[in-house]
Amino acid sequence: MRTPIIAGNWKMNNTPKQAAQLIAELKPLVADADATVVVCVPAIDIPAAVQAVKGSKIKVGAQNVHFKESGAYTGEISAAMLKEAKVDYVIIGHSERRQYFGETDETVNQRVLAAVKAGLTPIICVGERKEQREAGYTDALVTYQTLIALQGLDAKEVAKVVVAYEPVWAIGTGLTATDEQANETIGVIRKAIAGKYGRAAANRVRIQYGGSMNPKNVKGLMAQPEIDGGLIGGASLKAEDFAKVVGFNK
Ligand code: PEP
Known about the structure:
TIM Barrel, 250 residues, 8-stranded parallel beta barrel, 15% strand, binds phosphoenolpyruvate, 12 helices, 8 strands, alpha/beta
C-alpha cells in the first residue's frame, strides 16, 4: 500500500511571516492526517517554514533545485543547501518552470539526480498541454517525460521518488481532468516505470494528480486506484481548504 502524499505548491506567494502564520493555522487541522503532508514554499520562506512545522508531521519542500553542487550560478540554490536547511522534498520540472524559465526534460533529469544524491525526495512534474492531448500525444509524452526524468536512477531510487501528473491545461485554470482521465494517464506513467524499472518499483512509486485539485473534487480523484495524492496550487494557500484536501474531504 502506498501512503498518499498531498503537497502544497505555494508558488510565489507568502512572505516568511505569512508562511509561519499559514503553517500555524494548518498544523492543528492536519494533525490526524493519514497522508504525507508537504508544503513547498518559496526559498526565502524555508527557514520560517522549517521552524513553523516543528512539532507536526508537515514536511517542507522547495520549488526548484540547481543541478550543480556549487559554483558560478547566480541566483541558484543547490541540493546540499536545501538539505542543510532541513528541506525534505523538492518540486522539479513544474510546467511553469518549463514554460517561463526554459526548463527542459534534460535539465529536469539533472536536477532529479542532484536531488536524489543529496537525499531529497523529488516531486517530478510531467503533463501535456491542451493541444498535445487533443492530438492524442498524452500517453507518449508523459511516458517520455517520466523516463527521461528518471534516467540514471536505479529501481530502488525510483521507488522512492514522487511523480506529479499535471495536465498543463488544468493548472490554475479551474479545469480539472476527470477522475477517469487522471487515473488512466497515471496508469500509463506507472506502466512505463514498470517497463523500465520493474513492477516492484512501479508499485511503490507515488504518483500524484495536480491541476485545480480542491476540496470539491479531491474525494473523487483520490478514490481512483492509481492516484496517490495531489500537488495543490491555489487551494494550498488557505489552511482550511488545504486541510480539507489533505483529509480528502470525506
Ligand atoms: C500546481 O501549481 O502544481 C497546481 C496544480 O496549481 P493549481 O492547483 O492552482 O491548479
